[in-house]
Amino acid sequence: MIGITLLLVLPAAAAAQPYRGVHPPPPHKGSLELGGGVFWAGGYDAGSADANETTAGTAPLTLFVVDGRMKSGPGAAVQVGVYLGRRVSAEATFHYSRPILQARVTSDFESAPDVNVDGTVTSYLMAGSLLYHFGRGRLVPFVSGGGGYLRQLNESNADLLTSPEIHGGGGVKYWMGRGSRRFGLRLEALASARHKGIAFEQKRRIVPSFVAGIAYLF
Predict the structure, then answer these.
(1) CA 124, CA 100: separation in Å to the nearest integer?
(2) pLDDT reported for residue 13
């Protein structure tokens, strides 16, 4: 009778003990992860356009030519994820930035000197991703992929542009502490493909970005 009692009690007692392994305990289904930090979005060629004056019966007159480039710059990032298992998690992300669109005006019809005109673009990216994690130690590499929705406004808020986007990338998480609730550092590199963006020429573009921040797992 005593032996049977021990067989029933010992597994339950062992399960109630805190995890004391060499590595932190892996996340389980339903674990949540909150994160935030800064990111750096790469720049891209924004294309060119001619400013033409059209008069009936005559060929268009080119007043000037504009060449644009979206400059690289910093932003803020937030992530909220839930683990579907020990290795796979689903994550919602939000990126906010205010990059500079630089326009260079050349070939002026009245021979005015070339000039650069800068404007600020407000950019929001809301996306969802699936992450697959490798290993179970403090340093956990991962890969990710998903899609989202891009919303951009020019400086005067007169031009609104929206576009779907898809992205993929990978990174590492470094967890501190051995408890089931712990903080960590997160580094990630992403490539985002967008159908549209505020520019002088619309085409598919791939924009790289790098994210660095902290995460909390519970």
Answers:
(1) 14
(2) 40
Residues of the chain whose pLDDT is less than 50? 1-19
What phi, psi does 14 have (nearest 5°)? -65, -40
CATH code, 160 = 2.40.160.20
- 141 inside domain: yes
Question: What's the Cα-to-Cα distance from 33 to each of 68, 98, 127, 143, 171, rounded to whole Å?
Answer: 39, 27, 16, 16, 15
Residue range of the domain that includes 199: 23-44+65-217
Question: In terms of pTM, does the model score above 0.85?
Answer: no
**Is 15 part of a structural domain of the chain?**
no
Structural domains counted in the chain: 1
**Is residue 56 in some structural domain?**
no
Half-sphere exposure of 17 (CA within 13 A, CB side): 9
Identity at 5, one-letter amino acid code: T
Is there a domain that residue 81 lies in?
Answer: yes
Per-residue model confidence (pLDDT) at position 50: 64
Closest alpha carbon to 70 in 154, 151, 195, 191: 154
Q: Residues 145, 112: contact at Cβ < 8 Å?
A: no
- The torsion defined by the Cα of 69, 72, 75 and 79, in degrees rounded to 10, comes to 100
Percentage of residues in the chain with pLDDT exceeding 90?
Answer: 52
